[in-house]
Amino acid sequence: NRFLLAPLAAHVVSHLPEDADIVDLYAGTGLFSVAAAAARGARVWAIEGDRAGAADLVANAAAVARGRVTAVHEPVEAYVARSRPAPAALVV
Q: In the prediction, which pLDDT does 87 show?
């Protein structure tokens, strides 16, 4: 719903810690990833398996997030299967 999109993004981002490492699974075009980077100063790893969505994610992050979003184009299942330090927050 286009009328609820901004309030939804604001609500989710308001629950994220400032200046923290965040992982956004199924990131799509980067709605939450870009907003978290811009509004909270987060360092975000945005994971998206769809080729078109990942391409849009890269473009959106480059336009707004000033290098704070790392777009990862791979299936979420493959990404989470590898061991890595736990993020401060996880957006699913």
A: 96
